[in-house]
Amino acid sequence: MTKDTTPPAESASADERPPRNERRHSTDQCPDNRLRADGGRVAPGLLPGGEGRPLSDVTVLELGHIIAGPFCSMLLADLGAEVIKVESPGRGDAVRDSSPIGNSSFNYVNRNKLGVALDLKSEDGRAIFYELVEEADVLVENFAAGTADRLGVGYDDCAAVNDELVYCSIKGFNPGPYESFPALDPVAEALSGVMSVTGHPGQPPVRSGTSLSDMVASLYAAVTVLGAVRQRDATGEGQQVTVPLFESTVALMGYWLAYTQAYDDVPEPMGASHPGWAPYDVFQSADDEWVFVGPSSDRAWRRFCDALDLDLADDERFVELADRLDNRAELHAIVEATCAELPAEEIVARLREASVPVAPVNDTRDVCADPHLRETDAFGEVRATEGDGGRIDTPRFPARATGFDRVESTDPPELGEDTEPVLEALGYDGEAVEQLREEGVI
């Protein structure tokens, strides 16, 4: 197996290399054997849209599966990073071709990435991976605890190759008594207290309807990675970042934890209501739809009454918020009866006209067709790589900035789709690539 390792004619020796954080912004050919010229990418031109974005000179390696790792690296890709998703040949991400919802999860969280298949259990596979590590700024992984170390791609292994690497691990728990326990999104939701306040009183606890813990840990991971990259650019030193599902979800419960300690009370499941507001709930309309209403001030309450022709604004039972809370059940029954006589569209129209918080309870089909989302270009069309291969619309990065445009969505990669061009960018010739394929390394 041959690999072209001939350095450029004017390449500096390793001892003469300037610190990487000085080289990475150069517009000249890299002064060593690294590939980070042309916008700071390992394989320039394979992923469009990085130029002019905040992370256009950042390369991210992803050893991710299911939601948490892939969602984090997708967020970094949305900010312009070159993301290289590394998967096992023949199997790939655990949710590839797994089920309708598994396929859909993959198709959402894997846009804007290159797909490389490498057998990390083989010596040659790890050697290639270390070459990618040498080029990378960030690595994101969400293996089970201890797996990355057993594969030889843990933090110590990778830092020995590239001491400026920001290595981000998304785990179930921070180091401590629980760290070796298996963890899934519902485990974190159950332990954090989220399940205890979700659902309805007297009914079994309910998990969130989406992967709440996976996604909030991914968000914390992306924020922490950005901080670590900025610090690395100032100091030249990489670091390890650990982000836990459990503690990240606990952070979302912060105000309820503060409430329990301050008032010695444990909140019950609340359905769609809130203990501090009334009326504040979902109500069924005359056409059997559900509508959320929530006048959140005394002035909004008076507008609510006017909009729905309710002679309650000056009723002593409901004049102020404290009165409405004291008489919550009676008020709920009145609003429930009123909404049952009106179609959902009329309830929403009247209350929006009166500037009262209101919303229809949309299902996923409603959201896909939502006129505001369509008008604001909230979706990007991609091919459903896993599944029937049709075109689908998935949510784009929701934030806007005046200094840069959002990255256009690209199709999630087929398993190993970009292995050959990435290896060619690393200097492997066609014969070497073919041999690696024959040996099952790629």
TrEMBL record:
Signal peptide: none
UniProt keywords, alphabetically: Transferase
Residue ranges of the region described as Disordered: 1-53
Gene3D superfamilies referenced in this protein's UniProt entry, alphabetically: Crotonobetainyl-coa:carnitine coa-transferase, domain 1, formyl-coa transferase, domain 3
Keyword Transferase part of the UniProt annotation: yes
A Pfam family it matches: CoA_transf_3
Composition skew (Basic and acidic residues), residue ranges: 14-39
One function term, GO molecular function aspect: transferase activity
Protein name as annotated: CaiB/BaiF CoA transferase family protein
Keyword Transcription regulation: no
